Amino acid sequence: MVTSSWESFAVMVGGASGALTGLIFVVVSLDRDRIVQHPRMRANAARTLVLLILPLLVCLLILVPGEPRWVVGAALLAVAATTLYGLLRIPRHSLGSEHSRLAEVVDRRETSYVIAGLLAVAGMVLLADRPAGLYWIVPAIFLAILTGVLNAWLFLVGDPQGSRP
Q1: How far apart are CA 36 and CA 18, in angstroms?
Q2: φ/ψ (deg, to 5) at 81
């Protein structure tokens, strides 16, 4: 069973993740026609949504009452695999020389590997019935939210060194 000491963490992160995801949905719906016409904007919107929904899903798994650690571990492995698959399926578009270093960092696939890898390690440790596996989700969630927010910034306001599509 996942310890109750993680409950506050999961409630706070899940709430923040849900709020950020909802805001992105609102922005996308308000600018839908322009986003549909630009493949890079569609890809950025999809990547942002995946990265911001991920912490919500992880926190949902932690908050299920009475769930054994090995079940949380198996579910985290499934979420890690699904997230990696989803992020890698989103097409990458050449950023060109007009974009800043920030845009290049946010668009790198290595971030997807690290996030999925951290979640997979958390899942494997929990499958071994060790509560320390929960600590591996903290950097995964941190990186997902940080990358999602940076991606949202570039998506919403554009890159200061480049033009917004």
Answers
A1: 24
A2: -65, -45
Look up residue 152 and give its two tokens. 């949202």
Residue in 110, 114, 117 with CA at minimum distance from that of residue 92 = 110
Residue type, position 150, single letter: L
Angle of helix 7-30 relative to helix 39-63, nearest 10 degrees?
160
Is it the case that residue 124 has pLDDT exceeding 90? yes
* Poorest-pLDDT segment among 8-12, 109-113, 160-164: 160-164
pLDDT one-digit tens code per residue, 130-154: 888 999 999 999 999 998 888 888 7
- Distance, in Å, from the CA atom of 124 to the CA atom of 102, rounded to the nearest integer, reads 32
147 and 81 in contact (C-beta within 8 Å)? no
pTM: 0.82
Q: How far is CA 128 from CA 63, 66, 74, 110, 121, in A?
A: 19, 17, 10, 27, 11
